[in-house]
Amino acid sequence: MNDDLNDLYQEVILEHAKSPRNFKVLPDANRVAHGTNPLCGDNYTVYLVMDGDVVKDASFQGSGCAISKASASLLTSIIKGKTRADVEALFGKVHDMVTTGHADDSMGKLAAFAGVHKFPARVKCAILSWHAAKAAVAGGGTVSTEGDEPKAE
Length: 153
Ligand code: ZN
Prior knowledge:
By secondary structure, this protein is α+β, with helices and mostly antiparallel strands. The chain has one domain: Sufe protein. Chain: A (Alpha-Beta Complex), CATH 3.90.1010.10. The protein contains five helices and four strands, in the order H-H-E-E-E-H-H-H-E. Strands 3-2-1-4 form a four-stranded mixed β-sheet, covered by helices on one side. The radius of gyration is 14 Å and the shape is globular. The chain starts with a helix and ends in a 9-residue tail after the last strand. Mean pLDDT is about 90; it is low at about 150-153. Zinc ion binds next to helix 3.
């Protein structure tokens, strides 16, 4: 097995980091959540248009490493049309995947992030936008991967 960085930076991650999808502000967003990962310097805002419990549109803005950006790009593509419960369930699956490396067939392109589990410092990069999305579907707010530290805001 090749356990080096090539394994981490899979093609799908590199491609989404280079050409992120939904990388814009949604002017009609009714849910906004901000996520920060101070360890890496990743900083993103997730915008959602929700109709009741359903995500009608999703986008993000911000800056950070390739993994965090690719993760936010895939996230905002995947959660369109999903319900709050779907997003929360998917958060759980992504969290399991990036911490254990196990990905089942339902993960699709998200399986590209399974290799992150070998690099514990990068798990927070991969999961950051999911934390923000989970906060956004619940009403919005600010989340940090360093939950025990005082927030800057
Ligand atoms: Zn990062």
